[in-house]
Write a structure and sequence with these properties.
- Helix 4 packs antiparallel against helix 5 and helix 14 runs antiparallel to helix 15.
- The chain has 16 helices and two strands.
- It is globular.
- It is mainly α.
- The protein is 74% helix and 1% strand.
- It has a two-stranded antiparallel sheet.
- The protein has two domains: 199 residues, Growth Hormone, Chain: A (Up-down Bundle); 235 residues, Growth Hormone, Chain: A (Up-down Bundle).
- Strand 1 and strand 2 form a beta hairpin.
- This is GPH family glycoside/pentoside/hexuronide:cation symporter.
- Keywords: Membrane, Transmembrane, Transmembrane helix.
């Protein structure tokens, strides 16, 4: 990253060295752990360990995320102002430290006088952690638009970033639950999970902060005016606004489904043991498909490649409506009997893994294209503000997801408990399945309708 002694212009067309791409990408490993683990496990932690009602657990996540609508753009504008003097390194370091400490603290306390006091404490800790994560994640995303002026190089950067994000999902979702169980479940299991995953967050995020410290970025000049004046300029970037709304709608549906993944395997499939294998299959497929998302956008363009990935995802997601406990045995996986339903779950994992990472990385890649469009159109671009807005709306969506999930689960009669999982009615399980199938599929369909208006004008440069 640039420093006062190394304020260099990144070349607009040369290949970004693989070492730089790797040092950038590895930071997403820890970022993904913090992004996904609380989204998936915090509602489960609150409803089964702290006795917090499902509807309140969703609001606990929503509060800090609402703050980020303002915080993320402010962090982006702040990092833009000091970029020429200090680079973005101070933000990455401070954000990494704060994010890690807050992650560990989230799961530290399991005994409260009331579920409402528990909810208030978790909300406060998540507020601090979300702010620290904003300080890291917004400048981190801005850097992706500053490493190259070549759209295919930026897509390559995002593919490598998604490579590490996949490992983050594998660790944050697939490994977290087994760690909890390995250490006996209960408070001790949750504590050990937070220590192990917190250490991974710290090492990976600081590796990026240190590794990019002297890497030159595109220095297009500062955008004049305060934040509100800069936002007025952003509003004139129609491709960015279309992409922002598309991702926001899509992410709401995905966030609702992420919230209930543990509930789906626990109650709907009655196979909580299958989660690590499901995540492993999904992650392996995602990793194997990364060359596809380098090749396909070059062949048919990023927008069409995005549409292909999203449509396949919708088709597979809707099939969760027919998921349920296995009532036969077709083989064995270690000591576990494997039924037809289990095989279908793993088959879904493969397809979802192939396409889910595709439309996520392409959305981010196209976001950097809209920033480059602004830079070529005006001669300057506030990369941090763009990244801040994109990040803010993503986090808001992932806050609304748990709220929607909590309301739906409560409406369908989900019963919260303390110290472990309670049995649920068939009606409550139906609500869980809808949150993992119809609701995210419909949201993705609406997002694609918005995305059909995406057009990126070509400007010479």
């Amino acid at each position: 990253m640039t420093s006062p002694a190394t304020t260099l212009q990144a070349d607009l067309h040369d290949t970004v060295p693989t070492g730089v791409v790797l040092r950038y990408g590895v930071g997403q490993l820890g970022a993904q752990v913090f992004r996904d683990t609380p989204a998936v496990l915090l509602p489960l932690f609150m409803t089964t360990m702290l006795g917090v009602p499902a509807w309140l657990a969703g609001l606990v996540v929503l509060g800090p995320k609402l703050w980020l609508i303002l915080c993320d753009p402010l962090v982006g504008a702040w990092s833009d102002r000091v970029k020429a003097l200090y680079g973005r390194t101070p933000f990455l370091i401070g954000g990494a430290l704060g994010t890690t400490a807050s992650f560990v603290a989230l799961f530290a306390a399991t005994s409260f006088s009331s579920p409402y006091w528990a909810a208030a404490t978790v909300c406060a800790l998540f507020f601090v952690g979300s702010t620290a994560f904003s300080i890291y994640s917004v400048p981190y995303l801005a850097i992706a638009a500053e490493l190259s002026g070549d759209p295919h190089q930026r897509n390559r950067i995002m593919v490598l970033r998604m490579f590490f994000a996949t490992f983050g999902v594998l660790i944050g979702v697939g490994v977290a639950q087994p760690i909890i169980e390995h250490f006996g479940g209960g408070a001790a299991g949750w504590h050990m999970m937070s220590y192990v995953l917190g250490a991974i967050c710290l090492v990976s995020m600081l590796t990026t902060a240190s590794g990019l410290r002297r890497v030159p970025l595109i220095m297009a000049g500062d955008v004049p005016g305060n934040l509100w004046q800069q936002l007025a300029l952003v509003k004139q970037n129609k491709p960015f606004l279309v992409l922002l709304l598309t991702s926001f709608i899509s992410n709401i549906g995905q966030a609702a489904s992420y919230t209930v993944i543990g509930f789906v395997f626990l109650y709907a499939l009655e196979a909580i043991w299958l989660i690590p294998i499901f995540i492993l299959c999904m992650s392996a497929a995602s990793l194997a498909a990364q060359p596809l998302w380098l090749w396909l956008p070059r062949r048919i363009g990023k927008p069409r490649a995005y549409m292909v990935a999203a449509l396949v995802w919708v088709a597979v997601t809707i099939t969760w409506l027919w998921a349920g406990p296995a009532d036969d045995v077709v083989g064995h996986l270690g000591a576990q009997a494997l039924g037809t339903q289990h095989v279908l779950v793993l088959a879904r994992a493969v397809v979802i893994g192939m396409v889910n990472g595709g439309f996520i990385l392409l959305a981010l890649s196209m976001m950097t294209d809209t920033v480059d469009y602004q830079r070529r159109l005006m001669g300057v671009a506030n990369e941090g503000v763009f990244a801040g807005l994109f990040s803010a709306f993503e986090k808001l969506a992932f806050a609304m997801g748990p709220v929607i999930a909590g309301l739906v689960m409560s409406a369908f009669g989900f019963v919260s408990s303390t110290g472990g999982a309670a049995s649920q009615t068939h009606h409550a399980i139906t609500g869980i399945i809808l949150l993992y199938s119809v609701i995210p599929a419909v949201m993705q369909g609406l997002a694609l309708l918005v995305f059909s208006r995406y057009r990126l004008p070509v400007i010479g440069g």
